[in-house]
Design brief:
Layout (H helix, E strand, L loop, with lengths): L1 H10 L7 H11 L4 H12 L2 H8 L4 H15 L3 H14 L18 H21 L3 E4 L4 H7 L3 H11 L8 H11 L6 H9 L4 E12 L4 E5 L11 E4 L1 H11 L5 E12 L6 E11 L7 H8 L4 H11 L10 H8 L3 H4 L5 E5 L5 H7 L4 E5 L2 E2 L1 H4 L1 E2 L4 E2 L1 H4 L2 E5 L5 E2 L2 H14 L1 E3 L4 E3 L3 E7 L17 H4 L1 H4 L4 E4 L14 E4 L1 H11 L4 H9 E2 L6 H18 L11 H26 L1 H4 L11 E2 L3
Parallel strand pairs: 4-6, 7-16, 7-17, 8-12, 9-13, 12-16
Antiparallel strand pairs: 1-18, 2-3, 2-5, 3-4, 5-6, 10-11, 14-15, 19-20
Length: 603
């Protein structure tokens, strides 16, 4: 990259004084390196080239000052900031003590060059086909956004809002917007003081809403500020509920601009104060048109589409060694787009499984450690309201080997019933739900095989054979590479928020189950749970990889077998193997031992 920059400056002496010309030349000379272009332009915007020319040579102290500018003003991580400064120094013929090369380096081999060329072509295609639904995902901004603790879907919206056509983002404007509109947890005490002083407050927040039938009120809470237990909640005015009930009451959580006031209720003795939500405006930067998405998918090959999916959820497809690794990774997305898909992923630490289930979609919920109660998970009899399973598309249990459950036998019984029938039962209620159950566990290298007892160390609630049999498949997480820099999304990709909403919308599409039925030949005496698992997984794979399909004929036979049927059979087959190991008396016998012979239906 620094050689290229030197070439530009040698051949175009006026580039340093003309920002637009410099930007255009960088695009021409570095078409496959958007991250490098951004780094160089960020340094330019901070007048670092001018400072270098004025200094004549750079000491470590001078270098550190320039690096700090990029870190503080643009959120660039240290190595990348230093690389950008060094690239400018080299191009200007100025010596520095530090010899770090700019990241990412230019391709070192023909294979690297070809991979980079294909990646650039695919990025251009994604930008052309998805138009306004794309965003530049740049690792140099990762530290800035990670420090804000914002989920990916909120991050991508901010990037789209404050970046130009080339993906360059004004960090200062983003920071100011966040300070004005997205307060931190520490700010809420100040808000409460403003409220009791008679002022109203307005800000962007994540909210949950439910109806309290005992008192005839609609209640809200703000989970990012501690919820009801921390005083971050109250009542929603009836006119607000009436106007936005489709969004507030039908969805598990929402982001929106809210207006809050405080008033005292003198009907109680002594009078009690209550926070009231008097206005709400949903955070909805766009609408999701599934037909548009389906038509867009038809423009890509299946190989290209796999890479599009991976980059949409913040990973870099070029960081994987094989298509096999990519296919294992995208199995994590199945609960996002198919109702009641129950899966287990067992893997060593550091493969990024928690990130996918926590940060990608606001429609899912990750429980990370602690104690889980029946009321919070299944149904709260005191509040007469459903638990997490009734409010989200999936509930994932992280670090399951260390998690504890209050009244575990009750939870296990309730979960088994729910996983079988999709029903939540309370003492006085029965609710339908469609959340998938996802279990995430860390295992040691000696258990990286479905032929050994992999579930021995996970919580007893899930390793008991009757519960285990209700899971549809196992993801062999040890086949997915450990998270590293090369796996971080780097380039133009589908906006994560938009993509997550598409997956949510696909959950309600019934045509894909019909397509799967037309593709499968199932033996008459096939075990019902095996058949349900394979069909449900196949339907999820079709939604993920072939959303444009309207009939069996729209998916080539070899691709349906490779990308849908075979992985579904493998995933459920892993469950069967574990059942034979943990409960041989029940499952290591004819009729239960082996997977049914489910094949592609020729006619």
């Amino acid at each position: 990259m620094r050689e290229t920059l030197r070439t530009i400056l040698d051949n175009h002496s006026d580039a340093l004084s003309d920002k637009q010309k410099l930007k255009g030349l960088l695009t021409d000379y570095l078409p496959d390196n958007p991250q490098g272009r951004n780094l160089l332009m960020m340094a330019y915007d901070e007048d670092i080239p001018a400072q270098l020319q004025q200094a004549g040579e750079m000491s470590n102290m001078d270098l550190s000052r320039c690096v700090k500018k990029l870190e503080n003003n643009h959120g660039v991580i240290g190595d990348n900031a230093r690389a950008a400064v060094n690239a400018w120094a080299y191009a200007l013929g100025i010596s520095v003590d530090d010899e770090a090369e700019a990241f990412p380096a230019e391709p070192d081999s023909a294979d690297d060059y070809e991979r980079s060329r294909r990646s650039a072509m695919l990025e251009n295609k994604v930008r052309e086909v998805f138009a306004e639904m794309v965003v530049l995902k740049d690792p140099t901004r990762s530290k800035f956004f990670s420090d804000l603790s914002l989920p990916s879907y909120m991050r991508d919206w901010l990037v789209m809002k404050f970046s130009d056509a080339n993906g360059n983002i004004d960090i200062a404007n983003v920071s100011n917007y966040i300070k004005r509109n997205i307060p931190s947890r520490e700010d809420f005490e100040e808000f409460k003081f403003q409220l009791i002083s008679g002022e109203s407050v307005r800000f962007l927040a994540r909210i949950r809403v439910w109806v309290d039938t005992k008192y005839g009120k609609t209640i809200f809470e703000l989970p990012d500020f501690g919820g009801q237990k921390s005083g971050a909640g109250g009542e929603v005015e009836m006119n607000v509920v009436g106007q936005w009930k489709e969004r507030l009451l039908r969805e598990s959580e929402n982001w929106g601009i809210i207006d809050l006031t405080w008033e005292q209720n003198f009907s109680s003795s002594p009078p009690k104060g209550v926070i009231k939500m008097i206005a709400y405006n949903p955070f909805c930067p766009y609408t999701v048109d599934l037909n548009y998405y389906r038509e867009a998918r038809a423009a890509f090959t299946t190989e290209e589409w796999i890479d599009v999916l991976i980059s949409a959820v913040d990973y870099n497809p070029n960081g994987y060694d094989s298509e096999k690794q990519k296919l294992y990774f995208i199995r994590r997305l199945l609960p996002f787009l198919e109702r009641r898909v129950n899966i287990i992923e067992l893997a060593p630490k550091g493969t990024g499984k928690s990130y996918v289930y926590e940060k990608i979609s606001k429609r899912g919920w990750l429980i990370a450690g602690g104690t889980v109660s029946r009321a919070s998970l299944i149904y709260d009899n005191a509040k007469k309201m459903g638990g997490l399973i009734t409010r989200f598309d999936y509930v994932a249990f992280d670090e399951i080997q260390t998690m504890t459950f209050a009244q575990p036998s009750q939870i296990q019984t309730a979960l088994k019933h729910y996983m079988e029938f999709g029903e939540i039962k309370g003492f006085d209620a029965q609710l339908a739900a469609d959340a998938g159950i996802v279990v995430l566990g860390n295992i040691d290298a000696d258990r990286f095989s479905t032929g050994v007892n992999m579930v021995e160390s996970i919580n007893p609630i899930f390793r008991e054979s009757a519960t285990l049999d209700r899971f549809h498949g196992i993801i062999p997480g040890w086949e997915i590479p450990r998270l590293n820099r090369s796996l971080v999304a780097n380039g133009w990709a589908i906006n994560t928020e938009y993509f997550a909403e598409v997956l949510h919308k696909l959950r309600g599409e019934l045509i894909y189950a019909t397509i799967v039925d037309s593709c499968l030949e199932v033996p008459e005496k096939a075990d019902q749970r095996d058949m349900t698992a394979v069909k449900r997984l196949c339907s999820a794979f079709v939604k993920l990889l072939f959303p444009h399909a309207a009939s069996k004929d729209d998916i080539p036979k070899n691709e349906f077998i490779k990308y849908c049927l075979e992985p579904a059979m493998e995933m459920r087959g892993a469950i069967k193997k574990q059942l034979r190991i943990v409960d041989p008396g029940e499952f290591n016998m004819p009729g239960k031992r082996d997977m049914p012979e489910i094949v592609y239906k020729v006619n």
